[in-house]
Amino acid sequence: MSSEDRGRRSAGASPELGIVRESLTSVLAPELVSRILFDALRRHRGGEMPRGVAELGSFVEGPLVQVIDEELGEQAAASALEQLRPLLYRIAQGVGQSAPPPPRRERTASDQATRRVSSSDLGSGVMIVSKSRVLELHLEVSFGARLVADTTDEGRGLATALAHGPGLWVLDAVRAPSVTPLFLAEQLGQLRPRRLTAIWGSTRPYALLATEALTAVGLDPVTIDEADRVEPLMDLVSMFLSS
């Protein structure tokens, strides 16, 4: 694991980003906020999560406002910035913030899926197969408390996730996991009822192999090109959460 990825694991999704999301949700539909935040996060420094007040301000005044402008127009972007600037000031002053969550423990291969296993509805979560938690964090920030996501890769964590089976599996071909597409497809193909599968980064080599392997076992993955607009992934997760 790279030092960059370790930093993401320890930092997690900042509570300040949650406050920004809540502020946007007060004036925009939650589904639209999810899409805007996800798109903005992937544009921020190669997908890195904003850390600290300065980076949060740069994220809001840069990628976030840019995406709002593209989605809703210049006036909406200006209004959003006018609403968020006082919020950024209060965050910088330590006012109006939620209590920070306890430090997130570094998870080992044996307990990657602990949250999923302890869930009262084991089929309702989203499992991301990736070498990095970047996609998980982006989705958690975008959807807020509506989404329970986790990330797994090769090892006992994957075996636990397969045994307890979240309902939606997203294969992250942009940050391709070490588990082979053939093995993963064989395991997912045995689960009943059938799981919904998606592949993020559909033009990547891992995605091409995974699409072939999943199709061969009777699964029909939704393939999404990360270079395109993010609506297909957002719509898929929203549909899954509302089903």
What distance separates the N and C termini? 35 Å
Reported by name, the CATH topology of the largest domain is Rossmann fold
Strand content: 5-15%
- In CATH, what is the homologous superfamily of the largest domain? Response regulator
Q: Give the number of DSSP strands.
A: 5
Please supply descriptive tags for the structure shown above.
alpha/beta; five-stranded parallel beta sheet; 243 residues; 54% helix; Rossmann fold
3D structure, described in words:
The chain contains eleven helices and five strands; from the N terminus they run ααααααβαβαβαβαβα. The protein has 243 residues and is α/β, with parallel strands linked by helices. The chain has two domains: 91 residues; 134 residues, Rossmann fold. Strands 2-1-3-4-5 form a five-stranded parallel β-sheet, sandwiched between helices. The protein is elongated, with a radius of gyration of 18 Å.
